[in-house]
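Dear support,

Our group has been running a series of protein-ligand predictions, and this particular one with zinc ion is the one our PI (initials K.S.) wants archived with full inputs and outputs. We had some confusion internally about which version of the output was final, so please treat the block below as the authoritative record. The input we submitted was:
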Amino acid sequence: MALRRILRIDNPDDKKILTTRCHPVRMPNPSLKQLVADMFETMHAANGVGLAAPQIGITQRLAVISIPPTVEERPDGTKVEVAPEQNFVLINPEIIKASDQEEVALEGCLSLPGWYGEVPRAAWVTVEYTDLNGRRQRIRRATGLLARALQHEIDHLDGILFTERIRDLSTLKDYSEEMAPAAAE
Ligand code: ZN
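Confirmed final output from the archive:
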């Protein structure tokens, strides 16, 4: 496995690649396994919950998502994992249905480290994608962070950056001196 360099929105050469509409991945594709392993490693090293192939310079419709487990604390202080970690390899993903209700929340991008802004997203989405085994799969009515990450990553594959989705640009702020206020993708 190998760490890859994450392209940056604030670098003009990188931005050209990040704003390109990506090509469909042709399947089967034996080199994909290694690439996906590198993407998970690169995403985890940067503390992200999602990473799209164009963010490492590959303009193909491929993204990975890793939603951390949900842990609840009981009154006596013990912690209970109420939902496991969820990992996805999304090849040629498509939003096939989306809520017309919107949720606005802080969102960050690994291609603009430290910066977060309020992004409106559909409250839930149903996504179809191909998995590493070449099977078409469906995530039905994903909500919360998964819904947000799916929309953020699929936007990357269309060359759309989260900064373009922010309606009120005064909410876009540099939090690099503080604790990250939200997930970065
Ligand atoms: Zn991003």
